[in-house]
Amino acid sequence: RPRVLALANQKGGVGKTTTAVNLATAMAAYRLRVLVIDLDPQGNASTGLGVSRQDRRRDIYAVLAGSTDLQSAVLPTVVPGLSLVPSTPDLSGAELELVELAEREYRVRAVLEQYLAETSDSPDVVFIDCPPSLGLLTLNALVASGGVLVPLQCEFYALEGLSMLLQTVERIRRSFNPQLAVQGVVLTMFDGRNNLSRQVEDDVRHHMGDLVYQTVIPRNVRISEAPSHGIPALVYDLRCAGSQAYVKLAREVLEREGRL
Amino acid sequence: RPRVLALANQKGGVGKTTTAVNLATAMAAYRLRVLVIDLDPQGNASTGLGVSRQDRRRDIYAVLAGSTDLQSAVLPTVVPGLSLVPSTPDLSGAELELVELAEREYRVRAVLEQYLAETSDSPDVVFIDCPPSLGLLTLNALVASGGVLVPLQCEFYALEGLSMLLQTVERIRRSFNPQLAVQGVVLTMFDGRNNLSRQVEDDVRHHMGDLVYQTVIPRNVRISEAPSHGIPALVYDLRCAGSQAYVKLAREVLEREGRL
Ligand SMILES: Nc1ncnc2c1ncn2[C@@H]1O[C@H](COP(=O)(O)OP(=O)(O)OP(=O)(O)O)[C@@H](O)[C@H]1O
Ligand SMILES: Nc1ncnc2c1ncn2[C@@H]1O[C@H](COP(=O)(O)OP(=O)(O)OP(=O)(O)O)[C@@H](O)[C@H]1O
Ligand SMILES: [Mg+2]
Ligand SMILES: [Mg+2]
Questions:
Q1: Do B37 and B128 form a contact (C-beta atoms < 8 A)?
Q2: CA–CA gap between residue A135 and residue A183 (Å, rounded)
Q3: Which of A10, A191, A227 shows the shortest C-beta gap to B157?
Q4: Each residue of B68-78: pLDDT tens digit?
Q5: At what angle do helices A16-29 and A241-256 cross, to 10 degrees?
Q6: Confidence at residue A188, expressed as pLDDT on a 0 to 100 scale
Q7: DSSP assignment, residue A89?
Q8: Ligand 1 mean position to A15 CA, how many Å?
Q9: CB B144 within 8 A of CB B178
Q10: What is the pLDDT confidence band of residue A100, given thresholds at 50, 70 and 90?
Q11: C-alpha A162, offset from chain centre
Q12: Buried b (16+ CB within 10 A) or exposed e, A163-177
């Protein structure tokens, strides 16, 4: 059975999509079969993996609504071994529509389990990129996942929201998904030249200890340039500091998973 | 009657809260009476204006739920002439609860109009800081506002989401609030040393012309340090490039409003 990991943090702009895209790419480079599910109506993960708006004829919204199955929505990406279930702005209607459903928290888990039971092409790892909120889409991702990867920007407002996120994970674990645990916290957009970054790092390592990965992702303009070319930073510029940090992070995540 | 402006953009981390806090502070410095409503469950605007968690006994959630009126939730802040209606994590339950209500899109407008009709202390300007989504909280803010200020980070993913936001504003204007218009787009976290910032600026000015403010907010570490001290950047360091840009932006916004 594949390992399902959600990229979640209700604070906006902390690096959820960037981490989903580049960590998934690094794992594909380690010869794992990887699936990314874009559960954000913004569709940034789909863009970052090179799938244009026109190619998203079947998206995760259509799968959740039941008009197509997950298998038919899976697309190859620019990265060998890495496939994607894209999203479109249709998904922004899903939160209101899910509210009416019975078992509304289990919708993503249900379609994923069906796909995994039927496919001959099962992935080793599934990443779910979440929107910046703790609404029904993110709750669905947490119910469907075995672990949560928390990207944390080295900024004060991002630190402020961490306890709310951890409480939500705990609530989902108790009420819906007993196997859910925080896989780890990854510090992003770290700038060694400024005190704030170092203060946030010290604070987070002090409170969360080993849950925080050793690998820290530096602020690196090459990372933010890559999406405009529709390719991950690892493909755009493998030698840059940002890409190298994601390669290191992949090794560290795989070690925690006991796969290396 | 006061002017009501929403800070909205579903893309996360683009500077909505930072712009709400610092633009409001700059306007208070121009002797306007300003009210900020924190409509984001993260409560970052409340933190940025120095209102601690313990002081948020009555918040916007309690007002929307009807257990208190807006007048009793208004608090003074560290800035003379600037008051705040705080938010707490309770607000994250509001989206699901609002769904069941009749006239669910008009809830914020209704409580605001009641307050303005009854108060002897009416503000000149009201800012509503929105969460990073186009859900019911943001829709409520758009229905209650005369104008939308769109902070736009100089990054590719932020640019990608702009058309979705503008379509939503147009939809709200047609169906719920005919006086709603985009007051302006403000470029944030601009870094003159990197091409991406300049490309995003050229692109946005090309497509949106005069809607984009002349003033551009530079990336400036002093801006991100201020929230950890619970004060706006203008109070933390008025002379820094970031604060000066917000002072200039306030002048430009007031000129557009015909108040200068
Ligand atoms: N290490 C980094 N160095 C420089 N820029 C980065 C880095 N990581 C992410 N970015 C840029 O910062 C912005 C925010 O990152 P990203 O969109 O991945 O965050 P997010 O948490 O997915 O945002 P949202 O909450 O909107 O989903 C993007 O424009 C991205 O390109
Ligand atoms: N001009 C700037 N220079 C440097 N840092 C900035 C600037 N503007 C905002 N920041 C920092 O960037 C981060 C994101 O800004 P902010 O929280 O205001 O965005 P937001 O759009 O309100 O985010 P959310 O979508 O989570 O509500 C914050 O940590 C903030 O301190
Ligand atoms: Mg994202
Ligand atoms: Mg904010």
A1: yes
A2: 21
A3: A227
A4: 999 999 999 99
A5: 70
A6: 98
A7: G
A8: 4
A9: no
A10: confident
A11: 16
A12: ebbbebbeebbeebb
Alpha-carbon distance of A133 to B18, in angstroms, equals 18
Query: How close is the Cα of B17 to the center of ligand 4, in Å?
Result: 4
User: Cα–Cα–Cα angle for A135, A137, A140, nearest 5°?
Assistant: 105
Distances (CA, A) of B129 to A117, A215, B5, B186, B259: 44, 34, 9, 15, 22
At residue B144, the 3 state secondary structure works out as helix
* Rounded distance between C-alpha atoms, residue B106 and residue A181, angstroms: 39
Cα separation, B51 vs B45, whole angstroms:
9
Task: Give the HSE-up count for residue A208: Cα atoms under 13 Å, Cβ half-sphere.
Answer: 22
Q: In the predicted model, is pLDDT for residue A230 greater than 90?
A: yes
- Cα–chain center distance at A194: 27
Scan residues 157-196 of B and list those with Cβ closer than 8 Å to A. Answer: 157, 160-161, 164, 191, 194-196
Angle CA(A229)–CA(A235)–CA(A238) in degrees, nearest 5?
A: 125
Count of CB atoms situated within 10 Å of the CB of B52: 10
What angle, rounded to 10 degrees, do the helices at A162-175 and A136-144 form?
A: 60
What's the gap in Å between the CA of B233 and the closest CA on chain A? 13
Low-confidence ranges of chain B (pLDDT < 50): none
Amino acid making up residue A43: G
